[in-house]
Each structure stands twice: as C-alpha cells, then as structure tokens.
Amino acid sequence: MTILSGLMIGMFLAALDQTIVSTAIRTIADDLHGLSQQAWTTTAYLITSTIATPLYGKLSDMHGRKPYFLAAISIFVTGSIACTFATSMIELAAFRAFQGLGAGGLMSLALAIIGDIVPPRERARYQGYILAVFATSSVLGPLVGGFLAGQSTILGIAGWRWVFLVNVPIGMVALVVVAKVLNVPHTRRNHRIDWWGAVTIALGVVPLLLVAEQGQTWGWLSGRSLACYVIGVAGVVAWILVERRMGDAALIPMRLFGNKVFSQTSVLSVLVGMGMFGGMLMIPQYLQIVKGASPTKSGLLMLPLMLGMMSASIATGQLTARTGRYKIFPVIGTALLVVAMLLFHFEVQWNTPLMETMVFMLLFGIGLGLTMQTLTLSVQNAVPAKDMGVATASSTFFRQLGATAGTAIFLSVLFSTVGDKINNAFTAAAKTPQFQQALNNPAVAGKAGNQPVVQMIQHPGSSGGGASVLSDSSFIQKLDDVFAAPFKQGFADSMHLVFLLGAGVMVLAFVLVLFIKEVPLRSVSGIQAQAQAAAAAMEKAAAKEADAS
User: Fold this and answer.
1) Integer CA distances (angstroms), 362 to 15, 233, 340, 367, 426, in order
2) Which regions span the lipid bilayer (predicted)?
3) What b/e readout covers 138-161, taking b as 16+ CB neighbours within 10 angstroms?
4) pLDDT at 523
5) What's the whole-number mean pLDDT along residues 48-64?
6) Radius of gyration of the chain (CA)
7) What global pTM score does this model have?
8) What mean pLDDT is reported for the chain?
C-alpha cells in the first residue's frame, strides 16, 4: 500500500493531464488563433509519449523501475512549465511533444510495478484504489481545466496557462513520495539498449501519423503524402528487421508476437485507443462549440461519461477478482461503444436536448470502463514474468498508437469538412424568412457580435464564416440564434461523420475480441513468478550437473 501511494500520485499526474486539457483546448486554440491546428498539440504529445513508452518498459526491465519513473515525472514537469510560456499553437505543440516524453513512462511504469508486486487474480482487488485516481482525475480534470480556461487571468497569468502550470506542484509531490517509498526488489539484467529500434520505430510511426493528420489538407495522393507513406513503410520494415536481429534485447521482442493473446490484444488496443480518443475529443468540442457551454460547464456535463467509466471499471475489477473470468467484459464494452457512437451519429443534432446527449455519454463511459483495464490485465497475464515491463509498455504503446492515429484522423476529418458543412447550412438557412428578416433588421444586423455573418453575406468570397471559424470559434456564441444556428449545424454534421468512423473502428474491435482466448489468471505476482522461474532454472542446472558427474 505504501508503494501504491507513490504510484497513484504518478498516475494521477498522467491521468489529470489527459482530461484537464480536453475541456480547455478550444479556449487555448482560440486565444492562440489556431483552432484548426489543435490536432498538432494533441498528436505531438501522443507521438512522443507513444514512441517513449516501449523504451521505458525495456529499460526498466533491465535496470529497475524507480530511476525511470523518477525521470518520467521530471521530464513531464519540465515540459509542463515550458507549455505555460507558449505563444502559438505550433510552439505549444513543440512543448507538448517534450512533455509527452515524460508521459510515456508515467502510466506504463506504474502499471508494470503493480504487475511486479500483485498477482493478476488479486490485482483486481486493488483496482478500487487505482480507479479512485482515474475517477478523481476524470472528474477534477474537466472541471479544473474548464474553470482555469474560463478565467481571463490568475495572478497576472492567462487562465488557460494554469492548465499546464498546475502539474508542477503535483509533480513535485510525486517526485518526493516516489523517491522515498518506491523500493521494489530488482535483479539487474545486462542487455544491449535497442537505440536503433527506437529510431526506426519513430521513423515508421511519425510520417504515417503526420499524413493521417494532414492528409485531408495535402491531398491523400499528393507528393508530400506519398513521401510519408514511403518513409513510414520503410521505417516499419527497418524496425521489424532491427527487432529480429536484437532478439531479447529488442525494444519489443518479436517472440512476444508469437503469443497469440499478446498479438491479438495489441491490435485490439490500437482499435480501442482510436475509438476512445475519437469520442473523448469530439464530445467536449460538441458541448462548447455547438451547445455554447463554457469550459467549466462542459467539464460538469462530462460527468456522466466519467461516472460510467468509473463504476463499470470498479464492477469489472470486483467480478474479475471473484470469478477469475474477464473476457466477457471487453465483449460487452466494445458492443456498448459501438451503440454509443451510432447514437451520437444518428440522434445528436445541434439542437438535441442535453439530457439525451448525457445518457449517450453514460453509455460511452460504461463501454470504456468494461474494456480498458481488461486489456492490460490480459497482456500481463499472457507473457512470462520477466517480460512484465515490456509487455505492459507494449500494451500502452499500441493503445497510444491508436489514440494518436485516431486523434489525427478524426480531427483532420472534422476540420476539413466543417467549412463546407457550414456553408451548406448557411445556403439553406439564408432562404428562410426568419434569416432574411433578421438580416434586413438594422437593430439585429447592426450588432457588433453579428458582423462576421453580415460580412460573409455581403462578401461571399471573403475568408469569413466557414473559414474564419477554423482559427477562432468564440464569435459563434456572440451571434443571435438565427445567425449562430448554421455554424452549430455545420459542426454537428461534421461530428456525425467522425462518430460514424469511430463506430466502424469499434465494430472491428468487437469482432476481434470474440476471437481472443481467455487465459486463466495467475495466482502469483510478477516478482514471485520470476523467483520461481529462477529457482526452477537453478534446480534444472543442478540436476544436469549431477547427471554429468
């Protein structure tokens, strides 16, 4: 429990950052005049954390978890301080990329250490503590992020900058606690460090994620896109060759993919990561841009999703501990995620009552809660204890890979289609008597807040309306309802396409999880399993020596 307290603070730091930024990103992007560039700040963070994750897992298997967990916290805090001083979305993306180098180790190493000290069957009993961290961060993150983003200044610093600055005191506490209490026994294993594996995996992943994020803008078959395809595929091939050559010293040993549960769960993690981030990103956008909720209010409105995720996760942990069975949970969870995304696609319009939307959010959260923790448990249980770190990091890596790809693709689809959707909505709305009456009423058309629409109508070829909303959407809330409706409808229509894509991804996940074999959960911890394996190896060697003599 003492060790767990240190891990929980580190996990809280990582989990809080994932949720605190989501409700503030729209305000940040508007202030830095780059709403359509927000994908860069998210994908930069996810790319670096994704690439760093397996490296942390491998190095911690070799040298112990503690020094790398401390390093991850230190890098994360330093990156958070840098983000506070960003003056543009591109600059913020660069600082978020550095922050991601630390984030890659926080969650995966915490989960690996839990795998070291707690048997898989018993691990579910500790999920209550771990999930208390996620629940607290899930509830506090959107609220705190929304509150801070909603303040113009705090102590002379822009409110949204505190979204990153708040990580500093939490990180300092985490450093002190972890340094003091995290003393897990470790037997040092000398292996070569697979630096070439890290380089080639970056060479393979980054160009493919880059084209996923920019493909709509560049053109999927443009010269730049084709160059990214070629470099990415070459990088992936080179990575596989390097990992085969490195054997057990590889970043992700290829022999692990010979384990059917590991390989299938890795693909499933990619799909779940894509679906999870697709929903988690779109819902705050919908609440703030379409429904006009403040950042703080949108955080409160996300509570059904968070409570659904928390309650389902706790119930899953308790049932797994009692029965030792776990496969049924991701089966039900992925099915619920499909249903929730289809409901968002078909039922949620720009004028849908919030209560109906919140019911769908609850369903989405329950689906996530039934699915997420079971994937890590399945991977940890399926591999040898000596691979606990690299297996846990690999599970996190593939989930982050899916999340990064999902973020890039879904935001790219949203912002590449929203301009046309808004223009189509305006074309239809402009023919209505209500719109024409408002436009010809000097008291309405003369309002300063309505000028963006008036200018767009008077100068159809200008950069207003559908184009200007991509850099700053805050003016939508200043418009009269009749003028704001086409903008909101355009955003809602674009989000429908994103939710449909997300539902398609989760259908694939549902089908795949049906074929994953359920392996009985071990009753010993990772450290105990390693000790037993070492003892068995010594007995075998002694018996062999006795036979030889």
Assistant:
1) 19, 39, 9, 9, 33
2) 39-56, 68-90, 96-117, 129-150, 162-183, 195-212, 218-241, 261-287, 299-321, 328-346, 358-379, 497-516
3) bbbbbbbbbbbbbeeeeeeebbbb
4) 56
5) 81
6) 25
7) 0.76
8) 80
